[in-house]
Amino acid sequence: ALVVLKLCSFDILVNNHPKLIKFGRRVFGENLFKWMLKKSFYGQFVAGENEVTIRPILDHLRSFGVKSILDYSAEEDITEEEAIDHEMPSQSNADHKPDDTLIQYTAQKEFADRRKYRPVARTYFYMNEANCEKNMTTFLKCIDAVAGATLHTGFAAIKLTALGRPVLLSQLSEVIARTRKYFTNITGVEKMVRGHISPEEFQKHLDQRFKVKTDNEEIKNWFKQMDYDRRGLMNLFSWNGLIDMEHLITDLFKVPNLTTGRLEPIISALTPEEEE
Length: 276
Description:
Number of strands: 4
GO molecular function: FAD binding; proline dehydrogenase activity
Mean pLDDT: 77
Distance between the termini: 49 Å
Keywords: FAD, Flavoprotein, Oxidoreductase, Proline metabolism
Protein name: Proline dehydrogenase
Order of helices and strands: HHHHHHHHHHHEEHEEH
Number of domains: 3
Largest sheet: 2 strands, antiparallel
Strand content: under 5%
Function: Converts proline to delta-1-pyrroline-5-carboxylate.
Radius of gyration: 25 Å
Structural class: mainly alpha
Strand order of the largest sheet: 1-2
InterPro entries: EF-hand-dom_pair, FAD-linked_oxidoreductase-like, Proline_oxidase
Shape: elongated
């Protein structure tokens, strides 16, 4: 363990580990090299390859009163060119006009391969929906592994970004940013989190400041669909609608246009494929 720790302190070894791994496989062969790794680096950092092989390690730690955190690592070698080819199409939306998008939510080619800026960060590159289904199967296996290894007492934290197109997450982030901007325009409150606004106050601002006809049936229904906390304060959107198969995301994120008074999507419409 001390030898492995010392070797990991040398930057030249850490930064060139892909080359060293390829060299080791070529010199020692696949089987011998794998055995050497299991007795050194792999053995120090990896509990096992599957649910069965991790159990002895977890049982050993449990005997000393030490609980475990299982960190599943699914990796794939992708070149920078492949990363850009995968990332840029997945970040683009033909209906999403650049001049209608907050700049921080616009895909930039120079940042398509984020690994070179954050080498320690795990980076996900969208390929297709079939690959997302494959990732979901992996997640389910991880949950089963946690349940089996902890006698159904553990829990699993799943990062859901690998289950869909990154552009959808960017658009949801844009929804939040545009909602804050919309809220500020109407109420004049800069910090939305501090703006304790009731539906009546919000309706008053729309009616008096922007002359939006709040007695319109469409606007009335919009107010009815809002979420409210226990204090009666409003949430602009019902986020629970995201998991309701009966709702379209485009219909969920609508607000009254401050000029026309008609309900319009706060972001550009999603394609049928993205909705699905």
